Amino acid sequence: MRFNLFVNALKLLNSTKKPNLLVVNVRSLTSAAPTSDAVAPTTRPPPVEARNPGEEQRSLHIAVIGVPNVGKSTFINNTVNHRVCPTSAKVHTTRQSSTAICTTGQTQLVFYDTPGLVTQHEIRRHHLDQSFKSAYRHAIQHADIIAVVHDASNGWTRKELHPTVLDTLKAYSHLPSFLVLNKIDALKSKRMLLDLIKTLTNDTLTAGKRAAPGSTAVDPPAKEVRLNKREFSWSHFSDVFLVSAMTGSGLQELQHYLVGQAKPRAWKYPADKHTDSRPEAQIVESVRARLLDYLPQEIPYNLKCELEYYSVEKNVIYTSVQVQCPTTRIERLICGEGNGKLRQITERVTSDLVEMFGQAVSLTISTVAKGKKSPS
Known about the structure:
Blueprint: H1 2-14, E1 22-25, E2 28-31, E3 58-65, H2 72-80, E4 98-104, E5 107-113, H3 120-125, H4 135-141, E6 145-151, H5 163-171, E7 177-182, H6 190-200, E8 237-242, H7 251-261, E9 263-264, H8 279-294, E10 304-313, E11 316-325, H9 328-335, H10 340-357, E12 360-369, E13 372-374
Parallel strand pairs: 3-5, 3-6, 6-7, 7-8, 11-12
Antiparallel strand pairs: 1-2, 3-9, 4-5, 10-11, 12-13
Helix pairs in contact: 8-10
């Protein structure tokens, strides 16, 4: 049956009609709204229909993993329909695992946003903490299922899963996993997407040879086990989804899938909670994320952000963050002429925080270098 669906999809792609953007998993092939060259506005998935109030509570915990800059945080934000995870265009925006919560009907979905899987060389290059490499393990150990986010738009890497991803899947093969091909709106050839599914899953899904989750259950080894370098696919994905986290395409179907996988058990968090992160930590991480966007090359990785003040008065958040710079030259670069760049950064972060907290925010960002503080 699934093989027939794959064949029908190829016929659709070969037709003379302009192809639509496809939202695919192994059980169905449905077309979504066609894309255009213009950047489409983000359309987050609407809430799933409420269940019977008398029905028992259900939940699912999802560890979201992948290499840096594949769009994990954006994927989570738009799936839970709330800005929880700070995002930027540079790698290593997420420095530690964070939790995003989506409660719909009687089901609670808990997403663990993890730092990009890295090598020891990358840890040294970007001044990352040594715990950075093991942060994802903690998330997986609390998860029911693993979501692997893969960048389908990157022509250099899209045809193979990174060795660190494969190592992780092998180490935790007792957990079910599914593949999320992200940024599909950047691809012109839709046939390429279906070929990509065959390649990355070792053709175990398109021909109906679905791997049974748990069929290769093993205890996680104490150390990571390197796979053969020639391996670039994983044969045990239970499903594959094609999405654009930026535009929201494909996220509604994925959310429905996760709701269907939820387990009967009491919720871990209140229904109105979106994250377990403290607001002070979210503010600092939001500032650091925007510094990554506004500053060139490796400069933002050498900065340290600290919260100076936080208070909530009459439903307004008043907060101040200090950016510690290694040299006065870098401090001047952050501030810009007449503090123009610093004002831009402050305005952008303030907008992020208003969206994150749903209330007014008064933010001050100051800089300091060699003990001398500049005006903000």
